[in-house]
Amino acid sequence: MDEGVAETGTATGGVRLLLRLEGLTLFAGMTLLYAAWGGSWMLYLLLFLAPDLCFLAYLSDARFGAIVYNAAHSYMAPVTLMTLGFGLASPLTLSIALIWLAHIGIDRALGYGLKYSAGFGFTHLGRIGRQDRT
User: Fold this and answer.
1) Which residue, 59, 94, 120, 131, is most buried by CB atoms nearer than 10 A?
2) Beta-carbon count within 10 A of 57 CB
3) Per the UniProt record, which residue ranges are transmembrane (predicted)?
């Protein structure tokens, strides 16, 4: 078996650590860019946890919850938004993108990876939450 790949398909060992450090780097980088940009810290505080509202999708079922969570926590939408923010010279669009990427970064640094449909605790960075130890 390759180093960094568990039987569950999750990152382990040095690969997991590297992915979490990348998340920390993303969080720090986007927050520093936001500060350099001169963005509103009130807006930062109001929007920082907004992507976590997607947890509500888990009220439907785990599969739908994982789809919605992953859509809100992948890099595709905020990077697209950041590109539009630069291209259209839109400070609000750019601010939202930077805050969104900072949120994703801190989540990854804390081990909250993209979700599998098996349930909220099954992520590409390993299991999170309570685990039965039988």
Assistant:
1) 94
2) 18
3) 41-59, 79-102
